[in-house]
Amino acid sequence: MPIVRNSLLLRKGYAGLTFFGNILAPSDDEARGFERKGSHMKNHEMIHLRQAQSTHDSWLLFYLLYGWYTLTALPQNLKMRNAAYRLNPFELEAYAHEHDLDYLKHNEATEWRQYARMSPRERRLKYGHSR
After folding, report:
1. What is the mean pLDDT of residues 33-38?
2. What digits encode the pLDDT tens for the residues 106-117?
3. Do 49 and 1 contact (CB within 8 A), yes or no?
4. Main-chain phi, psi angles of 74, to 5 degrees
5. Torsion angles phi and psi, residue 27, rounded to 5
6. Cβ–Cβ under 8 Å, residues 43 and 98
7. CA distances in angstroms from 38 to 33, 74, 100, listed in the order given
8. How far apart are CA 24 and CA 63, in angstroms?
């Protein structure tokens, strides 16, 4: 997956973003972090790539679902900081496995579907306090 420097699309505090099969990094330093062998940051973004493939290989569907899950979790922001992002089913799976560099060798990255079946409140109660 190519790594492209682009600070315009990234909010402050985010190291990277998967954008239509590319990793966007806000700076050259962050881009080099993704290029390091064994990078958990790159593994996190690669999980998103596989997740997009699991949504009928459609980036559009991936982003529509991502947006929907973010919007439905917005009320949880009152109970937990950045809940709309952190409780997104795609992010829950990616954060849970970003340090397991063999995760994608043995998994299809469809665990997000289990999280998606839960309400945002259920996700917050079960996973929100662990980070």
Report:
1. 80
2. 999 999 999 999
3. yes
4. -55, -40
5. -150, 165
6. yes
7. 10, 33, 10
8. 15
